[in-house]
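Entry: Bcr/CflA family efflux transporter
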Amino acid sequence: MQPQPNNRWRLVLLLGAFSALGPLTIDMYLPSFPEITADFGTKASLVQLSLTACLIGLGLGQIIMGPLSDVHGRRRPVIISLALYLLASFACAVSPNIYVFIAARFIQGFAASAGIVISRAVVRDLYSGPELTRFFSMLMLVNNLFPLIAPVAGSGVISFTTWVGVFVVLGAVGITLVLLATAGLKETLPPERRMASNFGQLFQGIQTLVRDRQFLGYALAQGIMIGGVFAYVSGTPFIYQKIYGASPQLFAVLFGSNGISLIIGSQLVGRLNGKFSERQFLVFGLLLSAAASLTALAVILLHGPLFALVAPLFCFVASIGITSTASFSLAMESQSHMAGSASALLGLLPFVLGAVTSPLVGVAGEYSAVPMGVIILSTSMLALLAYYGLAQKKKQPGVNVPVRQKLSS
């Protein structure tokens, strides 16, 4: 049963707050990278490894929490995970060295994963077809505000305190979300629709999804693209501040402005959903990503000015808003019987790939942007290959494909 219209935005805001833990956890401490490096007396690559640890936690957590939510429902796993999140946030704040900090970041990412994966599963519990796409685009509107807010908030916090204050704030966010989940989240998966509490069956469900050629194509296309975004996320704090001399505040503005591009991309899909198919949006987003990343690499190799790099990166991030919204709808449409597991796989790949790409950005040191440019171009091309190799439908001879294809076809 779908919520009434007057309750829809309340649900969007609630689920958006849960799924926003991901971008908040990733982005809010980015302006602090140089300060954390100096405070722990360590190398930039180890600080970037803390981002990798968080991404691994986010990915691993989703693959565990998604199927568990198919067994135990959506509400209880969210509340337990949010309680763990606030404890991990405070553990980050009091870490005595970089290695404890990295471990705490892993736990923080693991705990944050439940909000991401289960919020998507709740959407699939309640909606299908074009309504699923429209609601998810609304959820993305709320969720994409946080890449705008997080780095600005992070730079604001460190302007009057140290990086430790960032994690104190994240702990306070965790406390708030525990209260909101307890008071405002209703169970959307009744017992009769839950999977058996059998890990063998859960594993078989994951295997079934992996064998689904189209689902895997959509998941890989989205995951590889977002893997490239994490290279951008990990690289730009040093590129903007070390190479171009941007202040933490200017970095926060430049980085946060890409939240606008995410919003533009996702809302483009939601608003024009009746005129173009999700498949057409996905192809457009993949092509836009390839063109933007190629331009960004050219600017880097030619040592172009800052604005010449910011512009194609803006377009690159916009393509993520387009492809994420379209691919989610296409992949989830046929997975109502195991929405948690499907959402987990969709969420796992980006963070696993992001965990690989993030540290690679720093292989040439703090003063080279070339690795980031190469990585985002490579991921854009690989995402295109994943779509055309796995997810694209084969046209039957003599059959015209309508502009608006059914999602279930």
